Amino acid sequence: ATANICDLYDELKADILLWDSEFEVKPTKVYIGLRIKHHNVVDLLPQKSQLKIWINLSKGELNDPNNLLRDVSSIGHWGNGDYEVIIKDDTQIEYILSLIKQAWEKYRH
């Protein structure tokens, strides 16, 4: 991954880890999961020129008013959950964090 994508990953991960001290970073062969109470909340895959993100919510559970995320419930994909987004810069990072927070709210209890 480029330095820009590594920075994007680091920024996103750091922001999420601030929400809850119980978060753990769980690398797999394919992606890096951010888990709480044995549930992946979000999976991150830094690639050469982009960061792929899967939010672990089932189809219909995510409130995404901007329709930024793609429904991957009926196609094969890495990561957990039915929602995927690809970012190349930090222009949407606050909005994406608000979407990830919906999954965190589900699993933190």
The proportion of residues forming helix, as a percent range, comes to 25-40%
CATH topology: Aspartate Aminotransferase, domain 1
What is the oligomer described by this structure?
Answer: single chain
Weakly predicted, low-confidence segments: none
End-to-end distance, in Å?
A: 34 Å
Give the topology string: H per helix, E per strand. HEEEEEEH
CATH domain class: Alpha Beta
Structural class: alpha+beta
Total strand segments: 6
Shape assignment: globular
Q: What's the main sheet like?
A: 6 strands, antiparallel
Annotation field: number of helices: 2
- Average pLDDT rating: 95
Number of domains: 1
Strand content: 25-35%
Could you give the order of strands across the largest sheet?
Answer: 1-2-3-4-6-5
Architecture per CATH nomenclature, i.e. the level-2 architecture:
Alpha-Beta Complex
Q: How much is the radius of gyration in Å? A: 13 Å
